[in-house]
Amino acid sequence: MAEFESPHKIVYHPYVTEKTMMEMEEENKLEFIVDLEATKPQIVDAIEELFEVDVEKVNTRIDKNGKRAIVKFTDEYSAEEIGMRIGVF
Fold first, then answer.
1. pLDDT for 19-76, tens place per residue?
2. CB–CB of 47/30 below 8 Å?
3. Global pTM?
4. 82: Cβ–Cβ under 8 A, 6 or more apart, which residues?
């Protein structure tokens, strides 16, 4: 398992498409491009530290863009509000 010095070494940037915008509004999820070596627990810790939120669940997949993490936030946090803070729209 890879060790990371900072959450910024795990989470690179948001991944924004029409589908991810719909997921943000309807399912309280945001999608990020993350380090290929990062594990789900490391991704959860990094997201929680970077955005001061609680994560309910993380799903990952690897495609031509790299490793993507689909992050579902707990009900007390709004993916739309987090998206606005990080400049998704």
1. 999 999 999 999 999 999 999 999 999 999 999 999 999 999 999 989 999 999 999 9
2. no
3. 0.92
4. 30, 51, 53, 73
Which residue reads 């669940």 in tokens?
A: 57
- CATH number of the CATH domain containing 60: 3.30.70.330
In whole angstroms, what is the distance from residue 24 CA to residue 36 CA? Answer: 23
Per DSSP (E only), the strands in the chain are: 11-14, 29-34, 55-63, 66-73
Q: How many domains in the chain?
A: 1
Cβ burial of 65 (10 Å; 0-12, 13-18, 19+) is exposed
